[in-house]
Amino acid sequence: MTLHVGIDVGGTFTDAVAIVDGRAIRGKAFSTKDVTTGILGALGVLQERAGLTEADFFAAVDRFVLGNTIVTNAVDEQKYAAVGLLTTQGFRDTLRIARSARTDERDPHDMAAPPDIVERRRIVEVAERVDAHGTVLVPLSDDAIAGAVDSVLAAGAEAIAVCLLWSFRNAAHEKAIGQYLDKHHPDLPYTLSSELTPVYREYERMVTTALDAAVKPLVASHFDQLAAELRSRGLRARVQIMQVHGGFLSVEETGKAPISMFNSGPVGGVTGARLLGQQLGRNRVLTADMGGTSLDAAAIIDDEFRLLPRAEIGGLPTSLTAVDIETIGAGGGSLAWVDGRNLLRVGPHSAGSTPGPACYGKGGTRPAVTDAALVLGLINADYYLGGTVPLYEDQARAALRKHVAEPLGTTEDAAAEGVYRLASSQMSNALRKITVNRGHDPREFTLVGFGGACGLFAASIAAEAGVREVVIPRNAAVFSAHGLMHADSVFSAVQTSPWTMDQPAAVLDKEFATLEQRARAWFDAEEIPEDRRELYREADMKFVGQIFEVTTRLPAETFGEADKEALRRRFVADYEEEFGAGTAWTEAEILLVNSRVRAIGRSEVQAVEQVAGVGEETHELTRRVVTEPHTGERVEIDVHRGFGALGRASGPCLLEEPDTTVYVPTGATVELTGSGDFLLRLADR
Predict the structure, then answer these.
(1) Which residues form the Hydantoinase A/oxoprolinase domain (predicted)?
(2) Which residues, in sequence order, are bridge partners of residue 5?
(3) C-alpha pair distances (Å), 391 with each of 343, 367, 395
(4) Cβ distance 378 to 626 under 8 Å?
(5) Mean pLDDT taken over the chain
(6) Phi, psi angle pair for 358, to nearest 5°
(7) Under a CB-based contact definition with an 8 Å cutoff, are residues 226 and 39 in contact?
(8) In the prediction, which pLDDT does 286 show?
(9) Residue whose C-alpha is closest to residue 336's, from 351, 352, 325, 347
(10) Angle, CA of 259, 262 and 467, to the nearest 5°
(11) Fewer CB in a 10 Å sphere around the end CB: N or C, the chain?
(12) Residue 491's closest CA among 598, 567, 416?
């Protein structure tokens, strides 16, 4: 027996999936502050449901993939290790000058400095200088290195970021600092920008380097604890960590650049949705991952999710390439409140897992979205997580009454209806941003909704955004964990190497060949078989005079003079796909800025024949009175358990699963797909 295990650590729950002999087993546990305890709790649920002893369970695991929130939480909450920054003399205030203090809305009343990563007293200038061509203008002395390191350590630095001007053209000075730290401070974590992100744009490169160094001590401590706990239980498989770019790396590789773990859990859900779309024959898919604290949305077009070459992390622009995920602070634990203008608000603050929504009975007194759904009758208080977690409607009503109904002068039911509708509207905005705002018609997409809370809201979110077809995976509550297992190993090597069409093709081909050497070394280190290796050449390109680039895939494994025209045509097509037909500035010269090689090691995961228990279901039908969230009417509707034995129904109705509930509104239909998932078709508005 072999087990494949995926773990997704969320803000409220830690989700787990195991595939054993073609059957998917799922489990959930409350997330914990130390993260490891929550992971072990979820693994304990899997072990129990697999019917194995602890020793047999961990010995059977041969694939273990983890999506972790430790970096995401550290960035979002701005709780970093005390990081010091070494930079070129004269550039101490690069992080504070930034790109500007304005928000996207350009509201003059909302201008603010970017959040601090490094305290200014821990930013030390180094006497050195390299020019834009990589020529050394001011040599770096050993005394300058020692003095700078001593200064930053005296200021209390627990980790060091090194970002020198033009180091991506000549990394000698940064490497010298790294060698000094290895020799004199071997236990001190540090990050060199020339190794992490050797690309131009000084500010983004410095932000990325500083963030990476700032989270290194946190990640190292967490991984050491987790690894020790797993080893003590008999795990022999390598732990693999999901990355922001849509693939996973080993713990060892992740430790070299932990900032790439940002948003790793939501990326797993996008990967799973792509696989599900392929199985259903849908080539345009939207994802809605609604957990306890947020909703994450992404678009998949022609089996590809969009990658951003300059991802924003924690409100800061970076030079990381990341899966394009739109996040909004609305989830099952998002708190409802009334602001100073007497307007109802939902989020962005969350009740989390402790104390959680008021209905959890764990001390929470503020109403959350889950409380509203319970008051509306959409959640069965006696069957939450299969009846393992009791809910208390009286406490949910008390919280809604005090914090929403009384301030607005309305009833508890009306307050709950308002919270539901406002949360749905906010979440539908995320879908509009990745469709309408980018020139895509949402009516052409299928929404895949997952996360423990999404089944109650997916139809409402889709209808408001204009989507007419919704799929709720049978394992929706743990879908991101399921997707993690089906991700590929991905390694990306990038280098700023400006090139124009009037230069020899051999110059560009040489740059790519150098990057491919690094990629092949990674293949060997990760022991990826030859038949599962893939290499892709990509380039960040723009018309001369423009600020930002569009990423284009090169047409051949080797690049020759005959390939120039094909590259130009492909770039123009990609540009107009991004910005609209006719927008390409074809009269201008084209500049290739960054060369990139993506190395992919295709995964081999057990095929899932069915979700455990689906083929053995017995249909149970009951009736329950609920408040229809869009009309406020009290109606009696069907409640189905064991829907797999029924296969088709019309709304309004509820489908109750042990770890999720699906609301099918009036006018919609629901049926079971061949893989056992729920397919909803909505009525035209």
Answers:
(1) 205-489
(2) 18, 64
(3) 28, 13, 9
(4) yes
(5) 89
(6) -60, -35
(7) yes
(8) 96
(9) 347
(10) 150
(11) C
(12) 598
Q: Which has the closest alpha carbon to 616: 640, 642, 646? A: 642
Residue 249 has pLDDT above 90, yes or no: no
Cα-Cα-Cα-Cα torsion 189, 192, 197, 201, nearest 10 degrees, comes to 120
pLDDT in tens, 311-321: 888 778 888 88
Q: Please state the length of the chain.
A: 685
Q: What is the 3-state secondary structure (H, E, C) of 180-212?
A: HHHHHCCCCCEEEHHHHCCCCCHHHHHHHHHHH
- Mean pLDDT across the stretch 158-174? 96
Pairing of strands 248-250, 239-242: antiparallel
Token pair 């024949």 in the structure block, residue:
609
- 302: buried, middle or exposed (CB in 10 Å: 19+, 13-18, 0-12)? exposed
Q: Over range 12-19, report the average pLDDT.
A: 86
State which amino acid sits at residue 89: Q
Angle, helices 393-400/412-434, rounded to nearest 10 degrees: 80
pLDDT computed for residue 222 by the predictor:
84
Contacts of 497 (CB under 8 A, 6+ apart): 508, 511, 592, 594, 595
Tell me the C-alpha distance between 448 and 475, whole Å: 12
pLDDT digits (tens, 9 = 90+) for 225-234: 888 899 999 9
pTM here is: 0.84
Percent of the chain scored above 90 by pLDDT? 56
Contact 46, 5 (CB under 8 A): yes
DSSP classification of residue 238: P
* pLDDT tens string 510-531: 999 999 999 999 999 888 899 9
To the nearest 10 degrees (0 to 180), the angle between helices 264-280 and 70-77 is 120
616 pLDDT higher than 90: no
**CB distance 124 to 151 below 8 Å:** yes
Query: Looking at residue 239, what is its pLDDT?
Result: 87
Q: What is the mean pLDDT of residues 105-130?
A: 81
C-alpha to C-alpha distance for 126 and 87, rounded to whole angstroms: 6
8 A C-beta contact, residue 4 and residue 260? no
Residue 85 CA to residue 214 CA, distance in Å, equals: 10
Phi, psi of 584 (to 5 degrees): -65, 135
Listed in order, strand segments (DSSP E) in 458-532 are 469-472, 489-500
- Dump the DSSP string for 225-273: HHHHHHHHTT--SPEEEE-TTSSEEEHHHHHHSGGGGTTHHHHHHHHHH
Q: Report yes or no: 551 and 597 within 8 Å, Cβ to Cβ.
A: no
d(CA 524, CA 508): 25
Range picked from 97-111, 417-431, 579-593 for highest mean pLDDT:
417-431
User: Residue range 428-455: average pLDDT?
Assistant: 91
Residue found under tokens 């498989």: 237
**CB-based contact 358:372 (threshold 8 Å):** no
Count of helices and strands (H, E) across the chain? 18, 36
Bridge-based pairing state of the strands 159-163 and 83-88: parallel
User: How many angstroms separate the CA atoms of 342 and 26, rounded?
Assistant: 43
Residue 224, judged by CB atoms within 10 A of its CB (0-12, 13-18, 19+), counts as exposed
Indicate whether 576 pLDDT > 50. Answer: yes
Strand stretches in 528-647, DSSP E: 533-543, 550-553, 590-601, 610-611, 620-627, 634-641
- Please name which of 461, 432, 464 lies closest in space to residue 663, comparing C-alpha atoms: 461
Distance CA 439, CA 614 (A): 39
Residue 605 has pLDDT above 70, yes or no: no
How far apart are alpha carbons 329 and 322 in whole angstroms? 20
